[in-house]
UniProtKB/TrEMBL annotation:
Its EC number is 3.5.2.7. Keywords: Cytoplasm, Histidine metabolism, Hydrolase, Iron, Metal-binding, Zinc. It is an enzyme of class 3 (hydrolase). Zn(2+) binds at H72, H74, H241, D316. Its cofactor is Zn(2+); Fe(3+). Binds 1 zinc or iron ion per subunit. It is found in: Cytoplasm. Catalyzes the hydrolytic cleavage of the carbon-nitrogen bond in imidazolone-5-propanoate to yield N-formimidoyl-L-glutamate. It is the third step in the universal histidine degradation pathway. Its main location: cytoplasm. This is Imidazolonepropionase. 4-imidazolone-5-propanoate binds at R81, Y144, H177, Q244, T321.
Length: 405
């Protein structure tokens, strides 16, 4: 039997139970291998388990939270789009740039031109930035390859990150992200191709979920439905970039397919919210994209809250709409821009982020959960959303092991 490790003298924000933050003032955690086996007040530690402890760490009264989950990123791509940022500052809209062949498609060209090694090296650097902030699980979408070959390359790089870094990686196939130039004027043919590639990508173990960009500059609800039907035929869960720039009814469509999450949601309607609630779909809020596009339409936070739709927070890291690599900064923005409470923001980047990926084994500090947790140089968890441009992450334990970067 693997030995037990004791982590004592910590303030725990377990996010478990009904008390604020799931707070435990003088907390102790026991781990065995990659799992948490016991969490509670130090005084309640069962004597039988205390006897089996082989390693013991005194955390000096530090704050502990679950490891952070970044449930929406586009981490694998070539090039960057700083010139497009300048164009937007001079008045060009994101949609106009996309319609003129820039935007996502310019990143597709740069991604196709990059070697596997270059894609892996740049994605590794980005993953390191996320990990420095305490991220222990990350979702990575394809969507800048847009051919079977290039989508497979990008998904393979994402899988490699999960194998080479102390980081859990979930991959999402986003073939329906934009129309590649070789399919110009043939969007339906491209949707057919996206669906045709899916079984082979899945057979190679490259796909954990399927996503699409349902938007007037992306794919219609009817086209999105076809992508979702192909996913369903393979038993793959779906997610959706929904109602970011306009209300396409994407959220209701995704909910019909039992989507894990609908993401962005600035233009989400009341009926979309109801459908998400009924389906148990998580609302993934992306304040970095809202901020960087200088958007002014807020997602309907109060209505999501009123309907009890769980809200997750993610970086949406990508070169066009959210080039940021700090999930903690997104917690701050979720509070300042979207008026989430600091506790909602932390739950959004832990337990609700995990649910948005269909993961129930992480996101809280509780027996049976993965031993993914962060030690912070902070007094109280509300400070996670308070400071910005400053990294208070002192240590990260991923799968029961101390992570060194
Ligand atoms: O999540 N909206 C679509 N996809 C990305 C942006 C991709 C890009 O501009 O390169 C997003 O915001
Ligand atoms: Fe995105």
């Amino acid at each position: 039997m693997t030995a037990l490790t004791l982590w004592r003298n910590a303030k725990l924000a377990t996010l478990q139970g009904s008390t604020p933050w799931g707070w435990i003032e003088d907390g102790t955690l026991l781990t065995q291998g990659d799992r948490i086996v016991w969490v509670g007040e130090a005084s309640a530690l069962p004597a039988a388990q205390a006897k089996q402890v082989e390693d013991e760490y005194d955390l000096g009264g530090a704050l502990l939270t679950p490891g952070l989950v970044d449930c929406h990123t586009h981490l694998v791509y070539g090039g960057q789009r700083a010139a497009e940022f300048e164009q937007r500052l001079q008045g060009a809209s994101y949609e106009a740039i996309a319609r003129a062949g820039g935007g996502i498609r310019s990143t597709v060209a740069a991604t196709r031109a990059a070697s596997d090694e270059e894609l892996l090296a740049s994605a590794t650097r980005r993953a390191h930035s996320l990990m420095a902030d305490g991220v222990t699980t990350v979702e990575i979408k394809s969507g800048y390859g847009l051919s079977e070959w290039d989508e497979a390359r990008c998904l393979r790089v994402a899988r490699t990150l999960g194998q080479t870094l102390p980081l859990s990686v979930r991959t999402t196939y986003l073939g329906a992200h934009a129309l590649p130039p070789e399919f110009a004027g043939r969007t339906d043919d491209y949707v057919d191709a996206v669906c045709t590639w899916m079984p082979a990508l899945h057979a190679q173990g490259l796909v954990d979920a399927v996503d699409a960009f349902c938007e007037n500059i992306g794919f219609t609800p009817a086209q999105t439905r076809r992508v979702f039907e192909a996913a369903r035929a393979l038993g793959l869960p779906v997610k959706l970039h929904a109602e970011q720039l306009s209300d396409q009814g994407g959220a209701a469509l995704a909910a019909e397919f039992g989507a894990l999450s609908c993401d962005h949601l600035e233009h989400l309607s009341e009926s979309g919210i109801r459908a998400m609630h009924t389906a148990g779909t998580v609302a993934v809020l992306l304040p970095g994209a809202y901020y960087f596009l200088r958007d002014t339409t807020l997602p309907p936070i109060d209505a999501l809250r009123a309907h009890g739709v769980p809200m997750a927070i993610a970086t949406d890291h990508n070169p066009g709409t959210s080039p940021g690599l700090s999930l903690l900064l997104m917690l701050n923005m979720a509070c300042t821009l979207f008026r989430l409470t600091p506790e909602e923001a932390l739950r959004g980047a832990t337990v609700h982020g995990a649910r948005a990926l269909g993961l129930h084994d992480r996101g809280t500090l509780a027996a049976g959960q993965r031993a993914d947790f962060c030690v912070w140089d902070l007094e109280h968890p509300n400070e996670l959303a308070y400071w910005f441009g400053h990294n208070p992450c002192r240590r990260t334990i991923a799968g029961g092991l101390e992570r060194t970067l």
